Every structure is written in C-alpha cells, then in structure tokens.
C-alpha cells in the first residue's frame, strides 16, 4: 500500500529544497526525495565553489595589476588555499548534513533514492510507493552533457564536478566548450598558471550572449595566456602516459587534463514521465504559468528549459508553492531573465539580445557605451574593459534587453534587469540621476546613444 502525504518533492536542489521547506512549514505533510546531496549541484559543484575559484583567481590578477597603479608586488599562487576553502567552507567535504538537518527541522521527511513517477499522483522510490494528496513537484535537475566524441568515453576526463573537487592545478588543461562554465573555469585555472586551451564549436565564445561580449571575453582570456580556438570540431580524443590529445580537423592539442564543459542534459525518461502521458524522450517539461505540467504536477528548475540558473529554480519554486497553498496567485514571466558569466570582465545580461529582438520583428534601437571612455573606467585603469549595451523596442519606448560587461558587470545589471522587468519607459530612465563617478553611470550614456 502506498504511503500518503500532501506533497512529494522530487529533487532537492535549491528550488526543490525551498519548496519542500516552505510547504512543510505551512502545515502540509511533505516528502522530499533526493538521490545525491540535499542542496543540489549549486552549493557543491556549481555556483558557490566555482565562484570561490574565480574570486581567488581575480585576487591574483589584481595583484599583478599593482605595477600599473601602485608599485611592485610578488605574486605566488597557492591552489591549496582554494581547495581548502571549497572543501571546508563551501561543501563540508561534500557532506550535506547541515542542509539535511535544515530540511528535516522544517518538517520534511527526507527519502534517499531515485524517484520514478508511476502515475499523476504516485511515485516509487526503491520499491516503496508514495502517493501525493495535493501535489508533486519535479525538480530533477540536469547532468553534465558529454558529447559523442570518438575516444572520449574511455579517457579520464573532468566535468565541472572533478574540476571543483581537484586539489591540484593541472600543468596544462584543454576545455571543450566555450559557454559560461567552460570560460569561468578556464580563466580561474589560467590565473593559477595552468596553460589553458579552450575549444568552442560556435564562431565565438559565450555564443548565447551578444557578439560584443564574446569579443571582450576573447581579449581577456588571451591576455591571461589562454589559447582559444573557435569554429572547431573535435574529431577524436586519446589519452596515453598521462597526456590527453585532442584532435581537431586541422591540428592536435596535448594537455595533462581535459575538461568537458559542453552544457547540461536532462534525463526525463528515467524519471518516468511517460506515466504522465509525456514522451520520455522529451528534453524539457512544458508548464503553464503556475508551473503545472498537469493538474497537481509541477516542474521547476533546469528541466523547464527556461534557464539552468539557481535563481530561475527559486523563482519557479515560489510560484509553484503559492499555487499549491492557494495563496495570492503569481504567474511565471520570462521576458526579463537575468544571467551572469563570472569571468573578468563579468558578463551580465537580461532579456533579449539585439539579434533575438530583431528576429521577433520588433522595431529595434540599440545604444552602447564603452566603459573605458567613462570617468570611472578611466580612473579604474587596469582591468577596466567593458561596455553597456541596451536594446529598445522603439514602438513601446521600453528596453527589451541589456548587457553589462565590466569589472562589476553582474552588479550593474541590477538596474538594467529592473528596467526590462518593469518595462520602465526609456524616457524615465533618461530622467534619472546617475551617481558620479560610477560604472553604472555608463547606462545613461548608452541610453543617450539609442539609435
């Protein structure tokens, strides 16, 4: 006989953990099912430890910039400090006891194992059947995508997980994939004196962002000594005597370590979505504005295809919880999704790129301001590269997209994200007072450049 509860949450990454805790504190009986670590990828193998690596690498770079600004400094990288911080401060040595206790203390019953849907209200975990009276929330997350490259499956490559957990900096590193994860880790290791090469299949780095963002990043990585190859197809991979060899169409690259950073994949078939009448080969789950896949069945996070970001999962989680609790209704909107690539310079963006806006048939105006031409950029000097780009729908006089690249690109993005989200008229944004001398003051210059 199935054990009955009010809500079953499958997957306890950030959004699932938050939903389970909130529902339990609201008085519902909740089961949370997790096969790995409570908290998910972000705190153990993703956003948190990777930013520790990036922070350390940026500190080294700031030390190297001293000679342009303030004198001389001798810089000696020490990866052991980074590895220690990741192991002891971020991940508790990849132990989720703290997160587990937090969840259980909120009233959630934690079930360890892999869940499989057996119906619209039932879930099986290790042979035990559970039934949900009110709702099932699916927050199954994603796994590192491994491309079908000849030879790859037989070599000891890294994904982001092994890269985060490493206690040593590889003497040389090849990164396959020039998206956010690949370039962030590439730059971090390069600043700890690894000889890094990045291989990207597209014609530019971070291909989902504005072309100008990829160009700025290319300059920055090359200044860090990173060898970047774009428009490249990997033909095969070998590993012998401690050396990886990546064969491209026109050359071969050797390295002591290989990192695969070619995106993330869902695996919804193994979750049993067929029990919901959904094709098990589907890549993402389509939801309504309340995050429902079907009545009483909700999907949040990576598996919705709206962005593999912790903030997206948390946003969708809150919408699903409000609907389950029949609280003040909230509906999902995706016209102003913010995202940040935490390289140096940071790349922050929100909404549509210029190309995306034009492809939808909007009457587009674009404005741009170069940070190096701003007073703050001039003062900042070393490490001041970047720009602000705004994309306006001329018919409505509002921004539909924006990009902020620079030393604090992700922070400057805040105002731009608000403008896109709230559809603030450009005339209102132009009438604001922008503090001087700041990086964000370049937003005013970009708005005045709209044409």
Automatic annotation (TrEMBL):
Location of the FAD/NAD(P)-binding domain: 6-315
Keyword tags: FAD, Flavoprotein, NAD, Nucleotide-binding, Oxidoreductase
Annotated residues for binding of FAD: 51, 302
Cross-referenced InterPro entries: FAD/NAD-bd_sf (IPR036188), FAD/NAD-binding_dom (IPR023753), FAD/NAD-linked_Rdtase_dimer_sf (IPR016156), Pyr_nuc-diS_OxRdtase (IPR001100), Pyr_nucl-diS_OxRdtase_dimer (IPR004099)
Assigned EC number: 1.-.-.-
Cofactor: FAD
Record's cofactor remark: Binds 1 FAD per subunit.
Disulfide bonds: 42-47
Residues noted as binding NAD(+) in the record, renumbered to the chain: 177-184, 200, 263
Keyword Ligase: no
Domain Pyridine nucleotide-disulphide oxidoreductase dimerisation: 337-446
GO molecular function: nucleotide binding; oxidoreductase activity
Family: Belongs to the class-I pyridine nucleotide-disulfide oxidoreductase family.
Listed name of the protein: NAD(P)/FAD-dependent oxidoreductase
Organism: Jonesiaceae bacterium BS-20
């Amino acid at each position: 006989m199935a054990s009955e509860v009010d809500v079953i949450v499958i997957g306890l990454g950030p959004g699932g953990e938050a939903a389970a805790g909130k529902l339990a504190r609201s008085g519902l009986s909740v089961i949370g099912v997790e096969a790995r670590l409570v908290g998910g990828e972000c705190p153990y193998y993703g956003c948190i430890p990777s930013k520790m690596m990036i922070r350390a690498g940026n500190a080294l770079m700031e030390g190297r910039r001293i000679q342009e600004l303030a004198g001389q400094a001798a810089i000696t990288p020490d990866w052991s400090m980074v590895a220690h911080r990741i192991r002891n401060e971020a991940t508790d040595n990849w132990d989720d006891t703290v997160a587990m206790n937090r969840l259980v203390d909120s009233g959630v019953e934690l079930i360890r194992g892999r869940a499989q849907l057996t119906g619209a209200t039932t879930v099986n975990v290790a042979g035990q059947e559970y039934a949900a009276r009110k709702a099932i929330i699916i927050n199954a997350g994603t796994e590192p995508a491994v491309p079908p490259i000849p030879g790859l499956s037989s070599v000891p490559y890294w994904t982001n997980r092994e890269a985060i957990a490493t206690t040593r900096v590889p003497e040389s590193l090849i990164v396959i994939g020039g998206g956010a994860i690949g370039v962030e880790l590439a730059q971090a290791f390069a600043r700890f004196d690894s000889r890094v090469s990045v291989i990207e299949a597209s014609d530019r780095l971070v291909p989902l962002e504005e072309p100008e963002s990829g160009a700025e990043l290319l300059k920055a990585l090359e200044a860090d000594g990173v060898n970047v190859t774009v428009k490249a197809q990997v033909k095969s991979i070998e590993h012998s005597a401690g050396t990886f060899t990546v064969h491209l169409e026109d050359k071969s690259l050797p390295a002591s370590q290989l990192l695969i950073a070619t995106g993330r994949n869902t695996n919804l078939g193994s979750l049993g979505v067929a029990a919901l009448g959904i094709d098990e080969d589907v890549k993402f789950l389509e939801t309504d504005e309340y995050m429902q896949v079907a009545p009483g069945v909700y999907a949040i996070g990576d598996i919705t295809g709206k962005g593999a970001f912790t903030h997206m999962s948390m946003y969708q989680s809150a919408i699903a919880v409000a609907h389950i609790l029949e609280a003040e209704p909230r509906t999902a909107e995706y016209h102003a999704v913010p995202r940040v690539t935490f390289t140096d310079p940071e790349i922050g963006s929100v909404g549509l790129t210029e190309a995306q806006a034009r492809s939808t048939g909007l009457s587009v105006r674009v404005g741009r301001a170069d940070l190096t031409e701003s007073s703050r950029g001039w003062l900042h000097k070393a490490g001041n590269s970047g720009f602000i780009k705004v994309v306006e729908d001329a018919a409505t006089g509002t921004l539909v997209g924006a990009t902020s690249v620079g030393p604090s690109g992700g922070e400057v993005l805040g105002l731009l994200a608000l403008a896109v989200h709230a559809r603030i008229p450009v005339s209102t944004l132009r009438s604001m007072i922008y503090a001087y001398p700041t990086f964000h003051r370049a937003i005013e210059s970009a708005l005045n450049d709209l044409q």
